[in-house]
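Supplementary Methods, section 5.1.

A reviewer requested that the exact input to the structure prediction be made available. We therefore reproduce it here, unchanged from the version used in the analyses.
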Amino acid sequence: MDSIRWIQNIEFIQAWWLWLLLAVPFLTYWHVRKMRHRQVHMSFSSISAIEGIKTVRTILYPFLPVLLALGYSSLVLALAKPQLSLKEEEVKAEGIDIVMVMDISSSMLAQDFQPDRLSVSKEVAKAFIDKRVYDRIGLVVFAGESFTQCPLTTDHRVVKDFLDGLQCGLLEDGTAIGMGLASAVNRVKDSEITSKVIILLTDGVNNSGYIKPLTAAEIAKELDTRVYTIGVGTRGQALSPVQRRSDGRYIFGMANVEIDERLLNEIAEMTGGRYFRATDEQSLQEIYDEIDELEKTEMEITTFKRYSDEYRPFLLFGIIMILANIVLKMTVFKTIP
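The structure derived from this sequence is encoded token-by-token as follows.
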């Protein structure tokens, strides 16, 4: 592969010399005709004693013109002044601070997404993280309360590891949207990055916490932080946890899907973001793709080029091939006219 890249990066400064390579087939044809006319005929009573005998000389002799052709071609390539161009890129990227706020209340185990809302949300979020190469990303989770699962970091592997470990039941059950949003705002308030974004994903109605969602949204607005809100859940009813046993397992039953879309839309509009509704895995993936398009990282790329002359190897190889042809014809393969 390295040799292929080397060939692809070769440029010929005086490429018109390469037209001389067209003479190779004509010179080959002329040489073959010349050798045929130089054949000497001798009469023998019988050649049975030497018939079929081949030596190294007889085998290699026809290849002498190949040395000459290689030498000539190599000299032509040297005349064309080959140069190797090496590109270097200097990338300066101003990343974005992104805090992902994820609902882990028991309703996220609803099975209108397969296998459930939380599992699908985690996988789609990880795919989104993989696209944000230059950004700092943090993770906040909430149910009846909230906490920072992972502070802002460029080590995306750590963020994805925390996502993998998320499960319902880690916090007191409930849906404290205001608490989750406030925790995320607290993560970005001291950031010196120009662009700050919060992606808040929930499947319910705010029913817990001591901070109102719109109060947290007002603070986000003051800090120039855009909030994209995502409501997750089908329309109508879904198989959801309705009760929990003493051993921790959930009992499932059909329940209405209730998402406070008016609140989520108001939060998004107040902060300059957008509200999205995801009713299945595909629509959730499309939402993250759209957010990825809306929040482009600013990059400045400077390209440098370095050149090195590469005619010397071709010149040396060509001289060696021609000298080898001459020396062999005068010694090992010397013939009597």
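The chain has two domains: 2-36+54-87+305-330, 96-296. These observations are discussed further in the main text.
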